[in-house]
Amino acid sequence: MLIIVPADLVLPHTLGALWHHGKNSLSPSELAMRPHKTLRGHIHYTSSKPGREGVERGREHFTITVHGDGRRTPRAHCEIDDEPNVLRDVTLTKNKNWDTLDAFVRLSLGDEQQGSSWFYFGDTGADCEGWTHERGRFSEHEAYDERPAIFGTHPIQGDAWHLSVIDRSEGPKVHTFDRFLMTSLDHRGATGPSLVWHDPGMIIEFVGEETITVGAGTFDALHFCYGERGSTAQGSNETNEHPPYEVWVTADGEFVLLKAQVTGYMQTQYALVSLEVHE
User: Fold this and answer.
1) Over the chain, what is the mean pLDDT?
2) Are residues 151 and 238 in the same domain?
């Protein structure tokens, strides 16, 4: 369900009280004073594997803040139920050009603390201050000549945001990426978190513009695919080969995840079931 709340909305007293106590921690007057835009969404994870079609296997709740100067911050809580279960909390900030500025990731695996790390991205390198179950307390630095186009932190909404860097001016086209940084090369993001390089050569195809309907409503969408669309490659977590991963995002410049599907050994789907927009 899509809910859009204009910043200048004046609610009746009774509705305002309900809003304050039941739906939002801010009063109507406080909402009107906010200089930023807020989006809140819920993504449903389901299986496509034979015998498990449509079975819920996880969920993601996110809040995005968009500031007047173009900075934007997502806060994502991700749950994967498949054993060993994964719980991940991610906060990340990008500037108006979609460059990553900083991030924080906390990870639990099998209901045990796996690690937590803070990341900072400068013009010539990235820094990480962290603790993981495997490494203990550590500090690390990765140098680069130019900022990586992508920093992978593993929320599904994060995967949607990566697509903001795709140049769509030439229409549908396959784009090949240089190496980029991630918090984990595990396909579930179940290691680290630390700074690790993804090898160059990942491809993302811009498929085109569509109109799609999901639980949150009907949207103008941009359709992309990580990897070779239509490929029957199974992929493998052990070899870091990801099966084809199709993604649809909003076409309004916010790149909110609408739906996604992964084939191969993963056989999973993602769908936006609710979205609130406070402007």
Assistant:
1) 91
2) yes
